[in-house]
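cron nightly-structures :: item 1 of 1
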Amino acid sequence: MTTPDTQSAAGSPAQRYSAYRARTAGNGPALLDFRTLYDFELDEFQLEACRALEGGSGVLVAAPTGSGKTVVGEFAVHLALTGGGKCFYTTPIKALSNQKYADLVARYGAAKVGLLTGDNSVNGEAPIVVMTTEVLRNMLYASSPTLSGLAYVVMDEVHYLADRFRGAVWEEVIIHVPDSVRIVALSATVSNAEEFGEWLQAVRGDTAVIVDEHRPVPLFQHMMVGTRLYDLFVDTGPGKGRGGKGADRPARINPQLQRMAVEEVRRAKINQGRRTGRRRAPRPTRFRPPSRPDVVERLDRAGLLPAITFVFSRAGCDTAVLQCLNANLRLTSKEESEEIRAHAELRTADISADDLRVLGYDDFLAGLERGIAAHHAGMLPTFKEIVEELFTRGLIKVVFATETLALGINMPARTVVIEKLDKWNGEAHVDLTPGEYTQLTGRAGRRGIDVEGHAVVLWTPSVDPGSVAGLAGARTYPLNSSFRPSYNMAVNLVGAVGIERARNLLEESFAQFQADRAVVGLARQVRKNEEALEGYAKAAECDRGDFMEYAALRRRLSDREAEVSRERSSSRRAEAARSLEHLRPGDVILVPSGRRSGAAVVLDPGLGRRSDGPAPLVLTVNRSVQRLSVQDFPRPVDPVERIRIPKSFSPRNPQARRDLASTLRNKLPEDVQERVRERRRHRDTPAVEDEEIARLRAELRAHPVHGCADRENHARWAERYFRLERETEQLRRRVEGRSQVIARTFDRVCAVLEQLGYLRDGAVTDEGRRLGRIYNELDLLTAESLRAGLWNTLDPAELAACVSALVYESRQPDDAAPPKTPTGPTRDALAAMVRLWGELDGVEKDNRVSFLREPDLGFAWTAYRWAKGQELDEVLLETDMTAGDFVRAVKQLVDLLGQVADASPPDSHVRKTARKAMDAMRRGVVAYSSVS
């Protein structure tokens, strides 16, 4: 289809000039100049956002992945440079910071661009500085002079504020950046962008909200059944495409795909149900998904490469590459392989041959040369960057990746493959959400290269095409705040603005904004309910007296009768449990109810097997062996007979079960049921009527409205009244719970800090200022360890081991064996830290907060050995960590050691030791710079 721009280009000079004027109408001089930097026309949403920025407003841009949101951030950079101010470009992850830094250096030169991450500090006083969001937060709390002249802050991937571990940092920055600074917030498409925009307007002033849901490259959805590729959607009208996102109207699910899926499920069930008369029946054939090499070859034949396959497992990514190599799959030409090898060797030139061997470089390079690679957090950062660079250049054709690749890194592909629709979230296997599906498939379709992008889901019998269509059709997801005050945040805020102002600032958070918005709806419902209650009370009126008073008596009577019934039932259950304790093997009992009801003989009383009471093992007259519980006996049980159980009896022997069941049937007396009923009558003597029940019944009979002919009609209205009153009371409690929830949490955090001496009478103490320099999940435990002098006598390696417990979180299950730790002073200090955590945990519980997890000793031995100077292969040999995990853990440890040094008194032993520990650990693979 010919675009309007192409049509105008083909017209007369006057028409072309008129079209140019129309396109540039409303553009200021900065925007006109900025547009010359690009060889393509900007989209309308980009122009709208840029005009708002040039007009002096902040902006929130919510648009799909790959739509070009970053152009708006780059315009903020342009405005800062032309206006003589500064622009900070913040990202959620270091890899994205490094990538953006390289892009901006290529455009503006290294002299004008800086980089500040936990790993790198390059030209930090430049007019353009790329940084992680945490670095800017720390600058704000420290009142860094680098903030001078700051005009714009770009917050790329701002939807990251929903992250439950790090999201609070984004809100801290938005709230605390000076009012003169314009915020440029770039977000994926979220369903509540307008709500987020309203909050930005409330805390930042004039903010334009630009939402664009149009994908510049249409996305088409497919499913692969075996090696057959089916469109997920079909046309719903003439002139339509293949359906899915990018079509003009919603499309229906491909009926051929649905029939194929049903047929495959039916075939699998038939095969699994087959039985033969032979002793060794052949195994039923089961559906086998296509191998990864088969999937790649199928995509290659369809012209759908390059592709990213999301595997959701680091080991799975590495295995996928090996499977493709073992299948002798090659996706590159000889020339491409040579170019790949040259680039990889250039990028790894600074890494020693011994380290490359330990890192598995030869296998990594073998995959690269064939156009195949993995990408996950367990890889060495340099290796990941090589994959990103080669993939962007079109030399790598297939990448097997975990979902971290979807978080902002610029690696678009023609096709995205999703192997499974569930993933492990660290605690359980959970289904992909529509937002996660959108984020993953957003990588499909390279703007300016591909006419269309493709998303392929691999079919298995557990994957219904309808569920995939639901994920594909739900294009947005809500952005919910994860903000909560921390100890470090509290002391820094109180130190900067005082406790009352700090409390008010926290009430400006997006978390409180969302809670207040929810409260508005709840409060509105409370008011509606209160109006309805008045109507119900009026309808229940009686001319004989106060019917609501009478109804309240009836309700109290009903509640008391239910309470007495529960007490009696509980008493019977307790009596039943006691009766089970007296059962012996050979006792014949009657199970009174449920699917196990009937006569049974006790094989094993089951004492002490369960915490809730005995669990007898019995054989029923139907030869079934069952383990019963107290729940099977609503009332006490008495043996009705006894039989002898042979010593050779085995519950697993069918013949033994038949023989004993036959004996049981023969021993049962004919009048067994009558005997049981007679014993029950003796036991269940009528209970004396409860005094409270008797009194309430007497009051009811004496009440004036008791004799009213319309009494039951009045009662129905009264019942509606009481039911709605209960619901309304629950709503009121929810309103109270959400109102000022952030401020209440802040008050509790401050109570902990006052109790421990970090605050005194609402002011920050010297110890509090030390805590303010520690930005860590276990900030308070770190500060307390410093204050208690737990590390005063340690050497650098010992200190590194101890501090690692404050930053490392292992992936081991809770019941894993205790990790190995260094002996001597290190082990003593670690034990003291764990005891100190226990004391702080008690303080937190007293103040109804929970922030501090237990120190994790899983990295202490590894950190100790690395700080001692041992070689990489020796260190990794005794750990199950990948090289990438090791490097990341060491860098996090080095970062915290720097904070410990800064928080320690000048010239103190701990400060000097922390600096030495940092130097000892910043070597080898850890020292290789990730900035090219």
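cron nightly-structures :: done
The longest strand covers residues 219-225.
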